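Priority: medium. Attachment 1 of 2:
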């Protein structure tokens, strides 16, 4: 393990964004997009009662994994808009959940933690690593170290007792039903984290695992020839009983992983796979003839069967498809065709509650449907702020990554000295790759990339 040099952030002017009511959104104006995002971000964070000093679980009926997903949404908000006002909350939320082995296997949540739940915290940890997001605690490994730990933890549970491989949905006997089910969200999460670690580190172990997980998913029939991503199958039936239900977030997890692999390998097969899955994802749009190109969760939305989890799926769908366009730009016309209409539709529903800005689930209604919630806010936020995703800096690689101890205003994290110069080494694992994280030696300032106006992307 190479110790890393403490980096003081480059002085940058504070980004001041004026809140904009969602119904006043102008998708051609980045300031309007960011202003609407600010409004919805505040709505989303109203469900979270944690502080910069302490993580607090989301209230019922929300599960622990959705807190990890919320941190990912807010990491996107910070990165895409430049508004750093939630950064301390995000950092504390991530750091308080690392677990004793720094892999987000938290004993207090073992009763509800599955492989997919761990993966969702992993998505957020990887985003923090890829953006040099502040990690103010010198007693905890760097973000990239912990991303590697999560990978190792998932890899240790690769299960070959049935179906020739794959991850089971659940981990612990307390969730026995999930111990007989291999699902695409768990395996897709493992695939995407492997791909992102391959991109960040150049370590072939990660890209080999990404290839392995993709091949298994396709060979077992959970990804079909058209790019549809099915929910899963039972191990007790040797995965011969594929559940044909499809969800938007399952597809997008594989879409982004494939797009990252296209950049890692320069192999056209990954570009083609990304394009094919994006085309297959058209099934998540146009619920009615008079609602063309409006996103909906077709497995549950029209029959009012979406639970609290499902009401957040459109958030991850948008997050990962927007991100995929950086590496596979050929999908940009499809995003413009489908997501631009959906953005407007989502914003049109954000007129509820006392604030008059709460969002709802059924975007094709064109109005607030009386059904607010955290998932609804996250879905609208990721779909709207994604319009400026490619204007932000691209994900960094290991030689560009630094352990940043201070926040953008140059103040240290709560209770943490601003003079720490190293990060703690990550816990070791016998499975997967051992890497040197945040390993660059340069410390003269944050690396910046050319910002491209939003109109140039879409």
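Attachment 2 of 2:
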């Amino acid at each position: 393990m190479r110790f890393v040099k403490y980096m003081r952030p480059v002085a940058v002017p504070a980004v001041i964004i004026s809140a904009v009511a969602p119904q006043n959104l102008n998708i051609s104006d980045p300031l309007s997009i960011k202003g609407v995002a600010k409004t919805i971000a505040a709505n989303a964070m109203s469900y979270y009662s944690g502080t910069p000093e302490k993580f607090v679980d989301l209230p019922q009926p929300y599960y622990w994994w959705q807190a990890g997903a919320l941190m990912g949404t807010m990491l996107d908000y910070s990165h895409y808009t430049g508004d750093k006002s939630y950064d301390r909350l995000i950092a504390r939320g991530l750091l308080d959940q690392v677990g004793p082995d720094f892999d987000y296997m938290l004993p207090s949540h073992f009763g509800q933690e599955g492989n997919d739940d761990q993966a969702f915290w992993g998505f957020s940890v990887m985003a923090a690593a890829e953006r040099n997001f502040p990690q103010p605690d010198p007693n905890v490994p760097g973000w990239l170290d912990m991303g590697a730990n999560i990978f190792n933890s998932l890899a240790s549970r690769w299960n070959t007792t049935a179906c020739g491989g794959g991850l089971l949905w659940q981990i612990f006997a307390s969730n026995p039903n999930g111990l007989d089910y291999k699902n695409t969200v768990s395996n897709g999460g493992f695939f995407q984290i492997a791909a992102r670690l391959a991109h960040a580190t150049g370590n072939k172990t990660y890209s080999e695992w990404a290839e392995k997980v993709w091949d298994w998913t396709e060979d077992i029939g959970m990804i079909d020839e058209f790019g549809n991503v099915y929910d899963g199958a039972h191990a007790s039936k040797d995965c011969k009983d594929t559940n044909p239900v499809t969800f938007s977030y399952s597809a997008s997890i594989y879409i982004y992983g494939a797009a990252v692999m296209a950049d890692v390998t320069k192999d056209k097969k990954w570009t083609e796979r990304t394009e094919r899955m994006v085309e297959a994802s058209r099934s998540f749009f146009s619920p009615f003839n008079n609602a063309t190109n409006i996103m909906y969760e077709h497995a549950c939305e029209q029959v009012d069967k979406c639970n609290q989890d499902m009401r957040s799926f459109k958030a991850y769908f948008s997050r990962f498809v927007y991100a995929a366009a950086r590496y596979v730009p050929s999908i940009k016309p499809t995003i413009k065709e489908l997501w631009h209409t959906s953005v407007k539709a989502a914003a049109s529903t954000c007129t509820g509650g006392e604030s008059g800005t709460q969002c709802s689930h059924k975007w094709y209604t064109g109005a607030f449907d009386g059904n607010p919630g955290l998932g609804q806010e996250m879905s609208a936020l990721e779909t709207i702020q994604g319009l400026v995703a490619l204007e932000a800096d691209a994900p960094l690689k290991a030689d560009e990554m630094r352990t940043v101890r201070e926040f953008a205003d140059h103040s240290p994290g709560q209770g943490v000295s601003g003079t720490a110069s190293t990060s703690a080494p990550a816990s070791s694992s016998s499975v997967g790759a051992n890497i040197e994280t945040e390993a660059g030696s340069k410390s003269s300032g944050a690396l910046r990339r050319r910002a491209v106006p939003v109109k140039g992307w879409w």
